[in-house]
């Protein structure tokens, strides 16, 4: 029975492996301290391990060696400051504000530092809610966190090879979903702009997984295994290039509007290939099974026969059909290479020829310079830090002034996990947190009613793994699991006290309300940053065009430029996804959606030139082609970079593309025209 694609992310993936590795690490810390000093010491030490474990995300061993000690320092410092100010409400309130501000600034280090920011606040909340001697609890936080680090590093080393294989399988599934989104272009009457936005949103998810996969493969403890897997990434990106190139000259729209079934055939083929990629990802996960990818030559031959029957009176349709067939063949040939490069070092080395892999790993910066750069009023991160610290300070004051809020630290925890740096992300987290708390409290109440200590401990351990695993995949699940984990943990620390299930719901509602109110303080509406993101993307696209539109371009330079363009495009897509929920979004949404679609078509034209030269290089004269590319590069730069002064060439249609140079000339002219359209849209957006 085939697993539905939508369920893959819930059943298989690097995040699940990572989540249960974290649960195992926390369990081992608890067992160790429990054997030495009893159950209460075990639970306190496990709290420290849990704090540090928040930063234990899928990353290579070399990165975790740097990240986890930083997580420990941040958690211990936060807990110690709260412990030292215990008994002095005013001073402790000020400390909460300072910790919130610092935690908000920590995200300036990049996406990897978001868990660091959260665990800083988590250690603060745990210490505030700890019974008895706060300094003793802080000591347990420090010891438990320190004990977790070597366990986490050992588990990372032990799962290094399997972890990369799981990550590759997950990336292949993301690409399969990308193909399903691309298939929507070929439906009759499809809205080209709406379909493009779905593709871009999926591409953002693909890019996110791609960065993690690069890092895990480049810094592999086993270089041979890492080389094979990063070669698979390189081949997968070739297929990605081919799929982008199918968009050139709006070919899907031409096929979908034609009175033939060519578009339906492409749609069916893409869905079949996506299913085959899902099967390939399973092959990678099942020990002893050789990965395979089926032959689709029969479908391509049938497509060629359908092209031969087309009415030649419509040369643009004929050209779109032929180009689509050629690009699909390129994509399928690339995908068919994945099993070989995964299993053969020789094939992997061939795919990686001329590449310096270290250039492709995401950088890990921990200096104070990125934070110092954000200490300005117009910085979104600086304003987030102000909002977060103000919300936490208000929450603390409410707890201090309201004796009935006996478990009020849950209010601070709710604020910490909901309040994000962007308006829409906070709104989404608020709704997900409320849902998760209601469901989690109901589950915890049922488990407590059964009153079985072994069952409660097993449920809590499972909740630790689920909460960690799904933090970025589905926060609703994380919120449910986190509520179960916290309520069961409180009960296990003090079984004689009734677990405050009802009060947790009240505290969650209060915390969510405070997070929403302070989200309106100096709000960071995503739509305010769209112009800057558009400028950044156009700049990256210009760099990409500058590298690609040359006769001799190294594979290293091309792939680095492509990497930066994909990441910038993904940022554009993510901002669009969030900006749709902004107040007033209806005023700029249509123009922004057109900009993203046009950016995609412009990139497709440039990619097509690259593939045309690669596939027909023997039919092109180097001197004439280099001169044409120089002129085209200047024309495209005139559109994408301010200060250039070069008019785009006329886009004259050449019906006979049997001549390679004529085909290249047409592609070059189209690239300049698409770049000009992009410039006009970017200018209207204020970019």
Provide tags for this entry.
transmembrane; 687 residues; elongated; 28 helices; mainly alpha; 4 domains
Tell me about this structure:
- The protein is mostly helical and 687 residues long.
- The protein has 4 domains: 1-158, no CATH class; 161-360; 386-524, no CATH class; 526-685.
- It contains 28 helices and no strands.
- The protein is elongated, with a radius of gyration of 27 Å.
- The two termini are 50 Å apart.
- Belongs to the YccS/YhfK family.
- It is found in: Cell membrane.
- One of its GO terms (cellular component) is plasma membrane.
- Residues 76-322 form the Integral membrane protein YccS N-terminal domain.
Task: Write the topology of this structure.
Blueprint: H1 5-11, H2 14-37, H3 39-53, H4 61-84, H5 89-106, H6 114-129, H7 134-158, H8 160-183, H9 192-218, H10 223-245, H11 251-256, H12 262-285, H13 297-308, H14 315-336, H15 338-343, H16 345-351, H17 369-373, H18 380-401, H19 409-418, H20 423-450, H21 453-469, H22 475-493, H23 501-519, H24 530-548, H25 555-579, H26 585-616, H27 622-640, H28 660-685
How much of the polypeptide forms β-strand, as a percent range? under 5%
Query: Major sheet, described briefly?
Result: none
Tally of separate domains = 4
Radius of gyration: 27 Å
Give the low-confidence spans.
none
Q: Could you report the average pLDDT, rounded to the nearest whole number? A: 81
Briefly note the structural class of the backbone.
mainly alpha
Shape: elongated
Quick recap:
With 687 residues, the protein is mainly α. It has helices spanning 5-11, 14-37, 39-53, 61-84, 89-106, 114-129, 134-158, 160-183, 192-218, 223-245, 251-256, 262-285, 297-308, 315-336, 338-343, 345-351, 369-373, 380-401, 409-418, 423-450, 453-469, 475-493, 501-519, 530-548, 555-579, 585-616, 622-640, 660-685.
